[in-house]
């Protein structure tokens, strides 16, 4: 009986988990491909693998590889898009500034409806 209780207690103790290595390669079109199973890698790319080892997952936080060059390119593309939007906004502001103000104030016409009452004889 004690052996069963000890086995249950030992089974419930959390142990640190280590993740498998991550394999990275560059495909023909230049994109990065990742897998954790060597069998999923096409034979053409097996000689050009980069093995990324991961840290033990003790605190169970999300594991994400960070590529600084990709982040700087993303920021660069965002800045180009922001500059385009600013230019469009300037053009729109210039066009709106050329429109003359109305000479007379706008008049709002309100239609009043008469209520029809029935007379009883």
Helix content: 25-40%
Oligomer: single chain
Class based on secondary structure composition and strand pairing: alpha+beta
Number of beta strands: 5
The poorly predicted ranges are none
Work out the strand percent: 5-15%
Largest beta-sheet details: 3 strands, antiparallel
Distance between the termini: 102 Å
The side-by-side strand order for the widest beta sheet comes to 3-2-4
The residue-averaged pLDDT reads 75
Strand and helix order? HEEEEEH
Put simply, the count of helices is 2
What gyration radius follows from the Cα positions, in whole Å? 35 Å
Overall geometry comes to elongated
Please give a structural write-up:
The chain has 121 residues and is α+β, with helices and mostly antiparallel strands. Among the domains are: 14-58, no CATH class; 66-100. Helices cover 35% and strands 13% of the residues. It has helices spanning 2-12, 68-98, and strands at residues 17-18, 22-26, 32-35, 50-52, 56-57. The chain has a three-stranded antiparallel beta sheet with strand order 3-2-4, with no helix packed on it. The termini are far apart.
Summarize this structure briefly:
With 121 residues, this protein is an alpha+beta fold.
């Amino acid at each position: 009986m004690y052996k069963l209780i000890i086995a249950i207690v030992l089974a419930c103790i959390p142990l640190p988990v280590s993740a498998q290595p991550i394999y990275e390669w560059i495909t023909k079109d230049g994109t990065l491909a990742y897998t954790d199973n060597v069998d999923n890698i096409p034979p053409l790319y097996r000689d050009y693998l980069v093995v990324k080892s991961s840290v033990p997952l003790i605190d169970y936080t999300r594991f994400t590889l960070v590529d600084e060059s990709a982040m700087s390119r993303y920021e660069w593309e965002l800045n180009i898009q922001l500059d385009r939007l600013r230019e469009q906004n300037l053009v729109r502001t210039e066009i709106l500034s050329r429109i003359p103000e109305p000479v007379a104030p706008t008049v709002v016409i309100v239609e009043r409806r008469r209520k029809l009452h029935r007379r009883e004889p």
